[in-house]
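ok so I'm stuck.
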Amino acid sequence: MKEVLLILLCYFIGSIPFSFMVARMLADVDVRSRGSGNVGATNVLRTSGKVAALLAVAGDLLKGTLAAWLGFTLGGPLLAAGCSLAAVIGHCYPVFLKFRGGKAVATAGGVILFLMPKACLILLCLFIITIALTRYVSLASVIVAILLPFLAVLLDYPWQYSLLSLIMAVVVVYRHWENIRRLRQGNEARINDRG
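replied:
not stuck anymore, here's the structure
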């Protein structure tokens, strides 16, 4: 019962809509009705500026890190995986925004930062390089998501983290499905496009 309550708590932590709150407080912008309409840091960058985007990323990273830490500290790898996934799902489907959330990249990044720091460093480098070369955040997000489960296995993390990595990869790719379609059509927005 304690584990179920903790996982539920982590869902609520994941549901905290930092991107929405930061954009509203700093720029008086509702990101749901501007730019891509996505409640995520990239849309905050396009519609509300760099400072707001950095704060949104920090908040979303913190959600994932906190959930992973709580699960690991109170129950070990399996509970850490469950709590982490709950935070990721909470970010995508937040109860506070009628279940319309972001795409989970930064929240999953916070999970990886705590549970799999070596994988996080490799993926962060690939993420930055991909953005620098293409200017597409969505492409960078999908690439690192797909590579995550392979890295978890190659770096010999516990099986619970490998399974978590696979599920998070599926969630991130699914949440980017429209971006993938636009990338294929050649009309996806680049990071420096304004909302």
